[in-house]
Fold:
Amino acid sequence: MKPFPVPVLGDASLASAEGPQVSFAPGRMETFQRPPRSTPKSEAAQREAVRLLSSLLDRMRAEPFVAWDGTGGGAVAPFLSLLHASREVVDEVNDLLGQGEVSCRIDGPRPVHIQETSFPSVWRVQVLAPDGALVDDRVETGAFPAAAGIPASPFRGAVEPGPEREGLMNSPALIREILHRAERWRPGDPAHVVNLTLLPVTPQDLQYLGDTLGRGPIGILSRGYGSCRIGSTRLGNVWWVQHFHNMGQMILNTIEIVDLPIAAQAAVQDYEDSCERLGEWLAAVED
Structure:
């Protein structure tokens, strides 16, 4: 898996109500594209990679889409362990699957790296030990990898608003609302969204919100027509969700109280499409 950027959210970059002025090349609406077909370094490794992915595809076709379940008690989605596969086979699996739009990094004692493949709802997941050793390496399917270990967190009331400062308008009231909603949120509840784009907030308000909520261990970047940047906060089930258009201008800035924002998740239609397209791609590679 190639390194991928994870945004830093909730910091001084939020001080502008218009968002950070980042320069991007003009983008376009993303449509499905097969991974580039390259000459395998090893024919035997490619055959084994195709065999493993075909086995995973058979299970995907036989089992229904597994929606996100933050409780950890839901159905187990089809997955393929690569932990004991050879380096050559893993490289061929990565080449065959390509890279999609969603990337995720979870910091902590056991860091987790997640990369959506070119087939939405099919994910590459790596879990590392504290010393950097690989402890899990898999292809996982479903709305979002369960291997990420993002259960719905119990309310953590450690966030304390700091002293109010000059220039604040609505952020003290918003902090009280967020704390109230987070304390009462339970798995299965719909997301509660605080839309900062539509509210009268000052740059000082945004800075105060960022300073109070802080940054959590999870960063998610979804690219496509523009980008969506998602970051956890120090408060359980509270996320910054920011949408940018293709020139880097922020167009939507929200705080969501939910176990995992929907913008990070694949849908059942993605799963159905990927079953079809992955089958076509593997058949083309075998020809």
User: Anything to note?
Assistant: The first strand starts at residue 79 and ends at 81. The helical segments are 43-62, 87-97, 171-184, 203-213, 268-286.
